[in-house]
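Recall from the previous chapter that SMILES is a line notation for molecules. Here it describes zinc ion.
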Amino acid sequence: VRELTEVAPGVYVTTAELYTTTSTVIADGHGGCLVIDPAVTVAEVSELAAALEARGLRPVAGWSTHPHWDHVLWSARLGDVPRYGTEAAVAVAERARAELIDELTTSAPRHDLQRFGRLTALAGEMIEWRGPAVHVLAHQAHAPGHGALLLPEAGVLIAGDMLSDIEIPLLDVADQDPAGQYRAGLELLAGAQGVEVIVPGHGHVGDRAELGRRVRADLRYLDALQRGDAAAGRDERIGESWLRPEHDRQFARLHA
Ligand SMILES: [Zn+2]
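With both inputs in hand, we obtain:
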């Protein structure tokens, strides 16, 4: 059974091997739970379901932080409950469905396509459920309709694909103003009140000090990127990883 780490009272994080992808589970205090970004391989999602069963936590809803293939997964074992996303995210998941399925079948084959990417648009800025208050912080950085979640009682910020210790800011290069949108999203997350724990979509859970460090590192990267400064490419998170071509692509997008 997969390990669930309690990062704050009633908030659990598990990390998939593929891309160090995190999934977060919030207990509602009545035997139910909200499952955020269950990931990534078929085996990993089913281990997550088993871990929830072992703890007596039954999913009552899901949340997809953004419409990228590795954040819109689901399985029958998690139950057929609504999986929410922002309105913009739901629109993209529908419009780009063929592309998402392509990426999925290349990187994590044999998922249940019936349940893949089927999202319900959340009306309003809070998840309607019996559990603790969950606020949606919607912005357009990294992907359209990116929705981070803030749990004010527990002091947890579930950042989606932002605030990572292992990834540089990855811009939505299809946006008209990718850098501006990224800065706006980062500002929104950095300004969230009472955050003691951050959970990035890929990477490691951090505390309040780590939140500050990551915001500064991301701003340093963005500043250099926008200036067209080669220093951006020396961000230590890039190294020789898959982030190198991603960096080159967004550099070219801003300085073509
Ligand atoms: Zn993403």
